[in-house]
Amino acid sequence: MQVKCVGLLGVSLVALAIGGCVGLWPASAAGQATHRFAIGEQDFLLDGQRLQIRCGELHFARVPREYWGHRLRICKAMGLNTVCAYLFWNFHEWEQGRFDWSGQADAAQFCRLAQKEGLWVILRPGPYACAEWEMGGLPWWLLKKDGIQLRSRDPDFMAASRAWLKEVGRVLGPMQVTHGGPILMVQVENEYGFYGDDAQYMGEIRQALLDGGFDVPLFACNPPYALRKGLRDDLFNVVNFGKDPADGFKALRQVQPKGPLMCGEFYPGWFDTWGFPHHLGNTQQYLADLEYMLKNNASFSIYMAHGGTTFGLWSGADRPFKPDTSSYDYDAPISEAGWIGEKFKLTRDLMAKHLLPGETLPEPPAANPVTAIARFELGQSAAILDNLPSPIDDKTPRNMEAYDQGRGCILYHATLPGGPAAELSAKEARDFAWVFLDGKLAGTMDRRSRQYSVQIPQRRTASRLDILVEAMGHVNFGPEVHDRKGLYRPVVLKAASGDAVEPSAWQVYRLPLDQPTLAGLKWKTGKVSGPAFWRGEFDVANPADTFLDVSTWGKGVLWVNGRCLGRFWNIGPTQTMYVPGPWLKQGRNEVIVLDLLGPQEPVLTGLEKPVLDQLRPQLDFTKKVQQATLTIEGVQPVHAGTFAPGAGVQEVRFTRVAEGRQFCLETLSALDGKAFAAVAELDLLDADGKPIPHTVWTIAYVDSEERISEDGSAMNAINGQTADFWHTEWSQAQPPHPHRLVIDLGQTTVVSGFRYTPRPGNNSVGGRIKDYRLYVGPSLAKPVP
Ligand code: GLA
After folding, report:
1. Catalytic pick from 93, 167, 189, 265?
2. What's the 574 CA to ligand 1 centre distance in angstroms?
3. Which end of the chain has fewer CB atoms < 10 Å from its terminal CB, N or C?
4. Atom 5 in ligand 1: which residue has the minimum CA distance?
5. DSSP state string for 297-365
6. Ligand 1 center to 241 CA (angstroms)
7. Catalytic site includes residue 666
8. Are 371 and 608 within 8 A, CB to CB?
């Protein structure tokens, strides 16, 4: 008997004795018995027996197919009885209507392998996933439709989502426990409470899964403070948190008084973004919380048990725009290359204390071999400007998606008339643009600091303008997923006199960085400057895992034997790229590198260890905000106050509505009397008291941010995630209060109030602000000219 979720939990269920453990893990491939999985009053029930789900997340799209079995065996050895896997919609339907379930995308095979290793599966098919994956898993082609509202009951979005979930049902429906497979339960959407509160939308996605043939329990996941949003009584709920399970489950019980307690995402580490420190989790805290859940009969899913690598151009970007690294090591118990260390061992030892009678843990398989590759040079090159495909003519530059392109680079060409020096600007350029005049670099545009103008020198005659735009991953979180790439018009050339020209004849060159892009390159021997592809060969006697040292290169993408391994960027923190052994050939191997900046040296070396934590901010091609000048002298604060202790969100309404383009938080003291300030999230309220979207917000000034021993960057205060936070310096310096953080709101904005989410954790955490002042004005910080 399978019970409906939540409201019906009262319905009496068979209380269950903790019987023998037969049937509590999937039979191997041979005995494809079907099973009943249900949500009981207190426990998950498998064939009527209590099951504590000890789950870990790994993404088959992020693990070389050849290593799926290896990683699953390690998960089993770590004490997991279940693995949780997202389906990234765009990975299976990069072109609308063309589904791919082969090779790395063979989800059914992944499920079969999990079953073979004695692991159940929790499936998370979306349509939206997040996961630091390109557009959160949503397909770029949805953005071709102007005005489409993603993750809503927008008819175009719903039609595409239903088609996707119907396809998922066709392929993975047979993998459910009810049909002899390992899938226990299926998630509807992902942390929808972070995004909206339309329960009907959740209902329609739920129905699409039912229509797709899913008959195992369906559930929703959210962080503790968003559980009520989109809440439905026909969906079971799990809660996501990185620590303090007691608090998390307390919040869960407030919306779901009965049923098993489950943490849907429990974070042992965190993801990395380019230019910010590598994240290391707090292992002691992680183990203590895991033990708490094991002891209290709570189920959980470790996010990530094994992070792997976001190969290709699949890495996304955190909001408002913090592109994710290709390495997704996540400081998980099982490392990017499948290595096991202290964290794995401690997790396994802990799990071993909470096994069911008769349950034992197998030994972990040996690590895969690694090899070093001697330093070699890439002797061939192909400049981008010399290798352009046939153009598309257009009167005005449009977004990349409008030219039917979902990723890579795009070059916009026009002719500028002769004339005086002038400023060339675009409304936006997503995400980075290199502006060339007659083939010579005139300047760059950078979405991180919303720098979209370049000085153009005097031109005696008409000149060739080329704007090469690189798209990093589509933002994967928040309303910013509506992240169309490329140039945003108008693109205007404005002279000091005020005369302005908007070119009206453009040639647009698509460079999706796919196989045809590489196949069309005309290689030359020797070096080249500027954005270019480079090619080299190296020999391998015994193919094995290695880590390519890319530290002498600038910024770009790398392929080995035609496989795109991901992105690199010299600012770090990642300075190596993982190369799975099975993707190398015995003998001659080929490597191609696209470098948009140009290498210090066009050489590569294969290392036996990864480098994931080396920041080199001095190599960044954008000025740091700290060089801006604060200009709040003489400005009247719109509010002054004292925050209460605790982690709860605190809201302040101003006595008078304020208006301005910039907002400044000035901290005067901390609750613990120390020199630090920290903020998990800042929200500003509009005239109606509603939170103002952060879409075009940037950090205009911050006096201090810890960027060495942890990612305490100011950007964390406006990225919508409360698991990370801005923290002033503490490791190498401890500047005192007052601390100032200035946000540029992108336009003049009416502000009636403010919401402060303190740094998460118990009252001993540092940086909790006491006295403070707030300012709103046209300009509270000036960038250095
Ligand atoms: C959220 C999402 C996950 C992932 C983590 C951060 O909780 O649900 O997909 O993005 O955050 O790694």
Report:
1. 265
2. 20
3. C
4. 131
5. T-EEEEEEEE--B--TT-B-EETTTEEBPSB--TT-SB-TTS-B-HHHHHHHHHHHTTPPTT---PPPP
6. 10
7. no
8. yes
* Lowest mean per-residue pLDDT among 381-390, 516-525, 619-628, 686-695: 619-628
Residue 646 has pLDDT above 60, yes or no: yes
Question: Could you tell me the CA-to-CA distances from 401 to 397, 438, 474, 484, 594 in Å, in that order?
Answer: 12, 27, 11, 7, 22
Count of positions (residues) in the chain: 785
Which ligand 1 atom is nearest residue 129's CA? 9
Contacts of 7 (CB under 8 A, 6+ apart): 233, 234
**CB of 65 within 8 A of CB of 103?**
yes
Tell me which residue of 121, 181, 134 sits closest to 305, measured CA to CA. 121
Q: Whose CA is nearest to atom 4 of ligand 1?
A: 131
Q: 681 an active-site residue?
A: no
Q: How far apart are CA 404 and CA 510, in angstroms?
A: 9
Specify the residue for token string 């046939």. 390
Which of 62, 191, 267 gets mutated to test ligand 1 (max ligand atoms within 8 A of its CB)?
A: 191
Q: Which residues line ligand 1 (CB under 6 A)?
A: 129-132, 190-191, 240, 265, 271
Name the DSSP letter for residue 234.
T
Please give the angle made by the CA atoms of 229, 268 and 546, to the nearest 5 degrees: 125
Q: In the prediction, which pLDDT does 31 show?
A: 62
Query: Which of 303, 319, 475 is the best mutation target for the ligand 1 pocket, counting ligand atoms within 8 Å of the beta carbon and taking the most?
Result: 303
**pLDDT confidence tier of residue 353, bands split at 50, 70 and 90:** very high
pLDDT at 14 exceeding the cut of 50: no
Ligand 1 mean position to 130 CA, how many Å? 6
Which amino acid type is present at position 282?
N
Which residue's alpha carbon is at the smallest distance from atom 11 of ligand 1?
131
Instruction: Give the residues across from 774 on adjacent strands.
Output: 639, 665
Residue 165 main-chain phi, psi, to 5 deg: -70, -25
Q: How far is the CA of 476 from the centre of ligand 1 (A)?
A: 10
DSSP-assigned letter for residue 368: P
Q: How do residues 493-507 score in pLDDT, each as one tens digit?
A: 999 999 999 999 999
Nearest to 329 by CA among 287, 271, 371, 286: 271
Please state whether the peptide bond connecting residue 620 to the residue before it is cis, i.e. omega within 30 degrees of 0: no
What number does the ligand 1 atom closest to the CA of 191 have?
8
